[in-house]
Amino acid sequence: MTAFPAGTILGYPRIGRRRELKKAVEAFWAGRIDEAALETTAAGLRAATRERLAELGLGRGDSAIPESFSYYDQVLDAALTVGALPTRFDDLRDADGTIGLPAYFTAARGEGDRAPLEMTKWFDSNYHYLVPEIGPETVFSLSSSRLVDQVAEAAAAGFRTRPVIVGPVTLLALAKASDDAPEGFDPLSRLDDVVAVYVELLAKLKAAGADWVQLDEPALVSESLPATTAQLADSAQRALAVVGGAAERPQILVAAPYAALGEVLPVLASAPIEAIAIDLVRGAVPESLPDLAGKTLVGGVIDGHNIWRGDLRGAFDKLAALRSLGASAVSASTSTSLLHVPHDVADETRLDARLVSWLAFADQKVEQVVALARGLVQGRAAVAADLDAATAALADRQAAPGVRDGAVRARALGEADFSRVSYEEREAAQLALDLPALPLTTIGSFPQTGDIRRARAQFTRGELPRDDYEAFLRTEIDRVVALQEDLGLDVLVHGEAERNDMVQYFAENLDGFAVTENGWVQSYGSRATRPSILWGDVSRPAPITVSWSAYAQSLSTKHVKGMLTGPVTILAWSFVRDDQPLGETANQVALALRDEITDLEAAGIAIIQVDEPALRELLPLKKADQPAYLEWSVNSFRLATGGAAAPTQIHTHLCYSEFGVVIDAIRALDADVTSIEAARSRMEVVADIAKHGFDHGVGPGVYDIHSPRVPSVAEVESLLRRATSELPLRQLWVNPDCGLKTRGYDETVASLRNIVEATHRVREDVNVPA
User: Is 494 among the residues known to form the active site?
Assistant: First the structure.
């Protein structure tokens, strides 16, 4: 038996410090490199990660370093490791039944008429995972040796690493029933079959030299899944009894991050496993716990979700409290994988030095874990200097100018600020917009071409004068507006060529924010974002979008939407201050947006979209915490839009949101039109909309922009006909699932032409003029 290390992390960023994996994967997709070259790049990244973590103080030979690499997504990895490839991809398996990279990426992205797996948000984070499809027909078998190979690869380089895989309960709890499954089928009913494959995998990992394996089971903390807590607890008990009782296996760490384990924790405590990792950032130290003899408690006391240096003294106190529960050993760790934070704050040469002193990116969090581990082994006095330095940084942060702004805090709010006139009054006033039935529009952004990115980079470096850069942007807007006119869209957008990111653009123009150079965080697959840092009170020093929207509107007699990012999404896709309630911060952002909407109306913009794609992702995993969140999140949107006049049509956009889960909140937003992701789920969302009697305008998406596929006219027509069969025509809009920023122009134009053609066909059948 090998003791668990005194300090570890649950996972590490995998895209590379300069997004090397993204670039290699996209080059492979484009045919510029072959599979061998991609594998070589990936192996180099894994080797660099191991060396860096060892350099930071995690041991080479004690399983402190997690083997958590993924080419695309950890849930997809687990699904395909156990052979859960939907039947539409079966012909892509290798001759021996294994699943190689071509099949892996096709399942993720789709191909031709083969739709990819659905994508949705990973618990309450901004990471997206691919949803496994499992039915009675799914044949489970060990179909990938990648994790085993990576353990052997590490061993050859002198590392004894800890392989990480999504556990069987979470894999099945996050899955959906396959298209071939009977109605009401529950993927969790296949638990015994899946667990048998995990047992086989564990034996191979043991043979490859793994002393420990990490099974990630975050489903066990969630109360927002179809499975109940009791069902999840029972499933965990059954699964762990089998894997824990296997004759040949590594020692097992079960990690359950993102919230408190609650009533499932005693189940893990009594299971035949050797270690349990619990989130002590989102959850508290348990008061008592039986059956811990022989087990290690891994305390997630360093926040893996945010980038603040945090209270190291308080973290050490939590670890000390864990020791009173009777575990054989206590280890320090991060609360979650460090997947959610950038690599290294030392890469940020332009951030204010004072702000930098308050921050901890992945590497700094590793150093914090190492310090806490040293304290566990040598005593508190050995790390007194580390604890004192963190406490001093916290105090300095609270005293810094701009963290609290009296003018922002003095802005009074009344009940009337959170409401508009009734929807019925607004609907009548908005008839003057003169829109056809099934109005055609897009969500906002158009493809960000290489020319756009180069011009922005040149402007940022000071190589392109502002006047020239703005002239370039006006030319881009001219082109995008003309294209939409040619395509026959009804409500246009300006394309957002001036925006590097839908949140960062606003962060750069609001006080209280800072932006990074290299703070990349994986969003999904090869996509990465640079979350801004919201460090102080928020205000708007000047209009942000008005000039670009007004210019675009001057080019067309059709309406051009003003495009804003909503307060909840700005918070969700930033690293937000943790020293005050989120609702207070959201209201500050909302007031800045409210002022922007007033200026857009004054500039003649009659339709304004306030995007809230992140509304669902911040929903707390515990039901008791959800009402308070929904209250402040909805109120912040209503505060932002509450000053709009009745004739102004307010749109919002949500993506990767299970509509039925937050239907009451969406209704409470009181937007005139809500567009929502629906293409990957093949318009399943409209049944929820109809069932709940949602009566405002709605645009269920008909084009999955996260796949390179061009949907056919027939495919779009089928989706539209399902929508029109479920919902009144007056409610329906036609739009893609999301913005088009990540797509190329060829596929975008082809897709939009098919959407327009399909819409005209449906209009003809319902006697609506095209």
Answer: no
